[in-house]
TrEMBL record, chain A:
Name of the protein in its database record: DUF934 domain-containing protein
UniProt cross-references to InterPro entries, sorted A to Z: UCP030820
UniProtKB/TrEMBL annotation, chain B:
Residues annotated as domain Nitrite/sulphite reductase 4Fe-4S: 119-271, 409-546
Coiled coil: none
Pfam families: NIR_SIR, NIR_SIR_ferr
Residue ranges of every copy of the Nitrite/Sulfite reductase ferredoxin-like domain listed in the record: 52-111, 346-396
Protein species of origin: Parasedimentitalea maritima
Gene3D superfamilies in the cross-refs: 3.90.480.20, Sulfite Reductase Hemoprotein, domain 1, Sulfite Reductase Hemoprotein,Domain 2
Keyword annotations of the record: 4Fe-4S, Heme, Iron, Iron-sulfur, Metal-binding, Oxidoreductase
The protein, known as: Nitrite/sulfite reductase
SUPFAM superfamilies, sorted: Nitrite and sulphite reductase 4Fe-4S domain-like, Nitrite/Sulfite reductase N-terminal domain-like
Entries under InterPro entries matching the protein: NIR_SIR_4Fe-4S, NiRdtase/SiRdtase_haem-b_fer, Nit/Sulf_reduc_fer-like_dom_sf, NO2/SO3_Rdtase_4Fe4S_dom, NO2/SO3_Rdtase_4Fe4S_sf
UniProtKB/TrEMBL annotation, chain C:
Domain of life according to the entry: Bacteria
Protein name: DUF2849 domain-containing protein
Annotated Pfam families: DUF2849
Length: 135, 555, 102
């Protein structure tokens, strides 16, 4: 099982439609977002991007690119992310993060909540003017 | 000099609190070593052969006396009384304990300094021309733009877990003193035909296993487009750069494999998406930053004390001839303080020496200091009349060596004496070469000659771009040194050519001596530098000097 | 042909201090190479390495380093390990400093 993490902490998965149909996309980290635009049909409501390792930061760029290209649906980071990356995920345009129960046991809720303040101390927001980079 | 505002201060306090918690979480098991390692690296903390090593950023090489004094404090309180200035305008402490590092970072924060992004697969500390703001040949001070890039790259959410490191350098003068062409991305302040100031962008330079010279990706990026343009480059590379092999992960390989035109097209497309997210706040910030770097009110006065000392004191004259550079104000000079005393570790300064330099900056230098990529310290603005007093003080503290640009002004990486990745030592080789040529009393006659030494293929000592490059290798469990000739770290950048088989540890100094002897005998005039001679005559006279047996065999 | 197994010691850096340590036969960590367990059997070496790696709260980066038997215990065979057990050659810091103060 997995845990979904948002700014309010750990919670259950509320996405019930799975990733098989045409309302959701499940993307590996080597996806080229440039070639994704045609798959971004209007009915896509959920895109989940894999982090096979916390060291593979390509997902942040993919998320950002999707947002910049106008994707307004849900964006989820899934896999091996560490609590320290929560702010990066949110600032790059993800709505939430999905991790395994096992990782959630090792890095409990309070370690993730410590980064719920991701909108503060953000050089990027300050550089651009207005709201955070991905908004 | 840039002064932190409330935002910077709050950011740094939060960041340091995060790191303190990360250390605790590593100790309590919440973070594995694999997870902790990139986090400590992005805060400048390595684990080396004998101990941890903390690398503190000196952004674009600029600091004031209070900051230098804090560097001295760190050396004394948490280290062994010295620090090592590096080719990337950082300072390294070789002996901190993990549990002390959060306190060291807090002490740095008090003077607006940090160790953020001095390591790890992120955008690294931005470097710049060490004569910035002082050089006579400058178009524009590159530091405001470097500071803007520092802020933009700090904690950039997209770029903290990239395939590899990403190094940016900025230059704003006719001469390149920042090794621009050996960087992942270089920004060069230029003017277009309409007289507007903008930036030429080069990408894909880098040393290491596959040395490459940077290529121009854009000849003129207007001011307001700079950050989105750099962001587009890094974003494209983060996405398509290779992750299967860390030796092929740098952007130089991406550029090589895809071609600069393909990369340019992708960058342009990404730029079109990113540009609208910059609503102009960066340009307002830039205007504020620029004010911090306004030149000091240069004092005027007679230069007689300087002229007299120059005429009457040969030691002062020798120092003035090598260690001073032209300042844009004619009665001022740029002083390079040599951290290359013959026989000492290149780039190492004791806490006491740091304090002496800080005091000199406060008393005579408008409170400004710089660190050069050549591992020396600079007083960028000094009225000439103060030079004799400064020189006298420097001499008392082992800082008066007159050797800037000469054969003993060697760049050397830490090598096997400290570095976990090393294949051979570099420091003792540098020490012995400097001592040898000092004994021969030849170095002023030899003139401008740069030796650069790395202790492994990673090339932290820039050996590829040394006039004489030395690379230390491990050949079947024994140190062995390979020589390259003809490298060039300036705008006419070139990667040196391998001279032939390597030399054992006790053969390398005599080998360098043979190269120098060959140069002295084939140069046209005393004015023809080593590099000019090499370019004229090529490798063969040097090869003959290095490998006399080979010649005999053929004969 | 598989290469013959050469004797090894297990070494690492201490998590907090960062300095070089060696695994002893008594399952403790020593700062002195001479006190390390010299392992001559390959299977035993792998087991001992797993032991060492299962102590992340004490050590970082445990690995097997070649060593040979000397008059006072294990000695390094490669210059890298010689530096690790001594300290840098430009200053008398590291282990050589500690030894000088004994
Ligand atoms: C002592 C610990 C150090 C370690 C572990 C280390 C590690 C590395 C590695 C792995 C690379 C190659 C990166 C690549 O090719 O992708 C590299 C390159 C480099 N490092 Fe270091 N380094 C150390 C110290 C230094 C020092 C002291 C300096 C400055 C004197 C320095 C400056 C550089 C430079 C200039 C490069 C080459 C530029 C380039 O890669 O394009 N490093 N370093
Ligand atoms: S060149 Fe090699 S030996 Fe020298 S500091 Fe870099 S990684 Fe270490």
């Amino acid at each position: 099982m997995t845990v979904i993490i948002t700014d309010t902490g750990f919670g259950p998965d509320t996405w019930t439609l799975g990733y098989e149909g045409d309302t959701a996309l499940d993307l590996p980290s080597d996806t080229d977002p440039v070639q994704l635009s045609e798959r971004l049909a209007a009915q896509v409501q959920m895109i989940r991007i894999a982090f096979p390792s916390f060291a593979d930061g390509r997902g942040f760029t993919i998320a950002r690119h999707l947002r910049l290209s106008g994707y307004k649906g849900h964006l989820r980071a899934t896999g091996h992310l560490i609590a320290d990356q929560y702010a990066m995920a949110r600032r790059s345009g993800f709505d939430d993060v999905e991790i395994s129960d096992e990782l959630a046991a090792r890095q409990p809720e309070n370690q993730w909540l410590a980064r719920a303040n991701w909108q503060q101390n953000d050089y990027q927001a300050r550089m651009r003017g207005g709201s955070p980079a991905a908004a | 000099m840039y002064k932190y505002n409330d935002f910077d201060t709050a950011f740094l306090a939060e960041r340091n609190a995060q790191f303190r918690a990360q250390v605790e979480r590593r100790i309590d098991g919440s973070l594995t070593e694999d997870e902790f390692k990139p986090l400590r690296l992005m805060n400048g903390l390595y684990l080396q052969l004998h101990a941890y090593m903390l690398r503190v950023a000196i952004p674009y090489g600029s600091l004031n006396s209070a900051q230098m004094n804090t560097l001295a404090l760190l050396a004394e309180k948490w280290d062994k009384g010295y620090g090592h200035f590096t080719t990337r305008q950082n300072i390294q402490y070789n002996w901190p304990k993990l549990s002390d590092v959060p306190d060291m970072l807090d002490a740095l924060a008090e003077v607006g300094m940090h160790a953020i992004q001095t390591s790890g697969n992120t955008i690294r500390n931005v470097t710049a021309d060490h004569f910035a703001g002082a050089a006579a040949d400058e178009i524009e001070d590159p530091r405001p733009i470097a500071e803007l890039i520092r802020q933009w790259s700090t904690d950039h959410p997209e770029f903290q877990f990239m395939g590899r490191k990403f190094k940016i350098a900025v230059g704003g003068a006719a001469k390149d003193r920042a090794v621009l062409k050996a960087h992942d991305l270089a920004v060069r302040v230029v003017q277009n035909d309409a007289g507007e100031t903008g930036y030429q962008i080069l990408i894909g330079g880098g040393l290491g296993r596959t040395p490459m010279i940077g290529k121009v990706i854009n000849d003129f990026v207007p001011r307001a487009d700079l950050l989105p343009y750099i962001e587009a480059v890094v974003s494209v590379w983060n996405q398509i750069g290779r992750r299967d092999n860390k030796y092929k992960a740098r952007i130089k390989i991406t550029v090589h494999e895809h071609g600069i035109d393909h990369i340019r097209a992708r960058v342009d497309a990404r730029f079109a998406l990113i540009r609208p997210t910059f609503l102009g706040a960066d340009q307002e910030l830039f205007s504020e930053i620029k004010v911090h770097f306004s030149p000091p009110k240069f004092r005027t006065g007679s230069t007689t004390p300087y002229d007299t000392a120059y005429k009457t004191d040969p030691v002062f004259r020798a120092w003035a001839d090598t260690n001073l550079a032209d300042h844009r104000v004619s009665d001022h000079a740029i002083v390079t303080i040599s951290i290359k005393k013959h026989g000492a570790t290149p780039g190492d300064a004791s806490a006491e020496q740091m304090r002496v330099m800080a005091t000199l900056a406060a008393d005579y230098g408008y409170d400004e200091l710089r660190i050069s990529h050549e591992q020396n310290v600079i007083l960028p603005h000094v009225h000439k009349s103060d030079l004799p007093a400064i020189h006298a003080k420097l001499k008392q503290h082992g800082l008066g060596t007159a050797n800037i640009g000469l054969i003993s002004d060697i760049i050397a990486c830490p090598g096997m004496d400290y570095c976990a990745l090393a294949t051979a030592r570099s420091i003792p080789v540098a020490e012995q070469i400097a001592t040898r040529f000092d004994d021969l009393k030849l170095e002023h006659d030899i003139g401008h000659l740069q030796i650069k030494i790395s202790g492994c293929i990673n090339a932290c000592g820039h050996h590829h771009v040394g006039h004489i490059g030395i690379l230390g290798l491990d050949r079947a469990g024994v140190e062995n040194y390979q020589i390259t000739l003809g490298g060039d770290a300036t705008w006419s950048a070139a990667v040196g050519e391998r001279a032939g088989p390597g030399f054992a540890y006790d053969e390398i100094v005599p080998a360098v001596e043979r190269i120098v002897d060959a140069y002295l005998s084939v140069r046209d005039t005393a004015e023809e530098t080593f590099l000019e001679t090499y370019r004229r005559v090529g490798m063969s006279p040097f090869k003959a000097a290095l490998y006399p047996e080979a010649i005999k065999k053929v004969a | 042909m598989a290469r013959a197994f050469t004797p090894k010691v297990i070494t690492a850096n201490h998590l907090i201090e960062g300095d070089v340590i060696y695994l002893t036969a008594a399952d403790t960590w020593s700062r002195d190479l001479a006190e390390a367990e010299l392992i001559t059997d390959e299977a035993h070496a792998q087991l001992r390495l797993l032991d060492a790696q299962s102590q992340p709260a004490t050590v970082v980066g445990a690995y097997l380093a070649d060593a040979t038997s000397g008059a006072n215990g294990p000695e390094p065979t490669h210059f890298r390990e010689e530096f690790r057990r001594t300290g840098p050659s430009n200053y008398a810091h590291g282990k050589q400093e500690v030894l000088a103060n004994v």
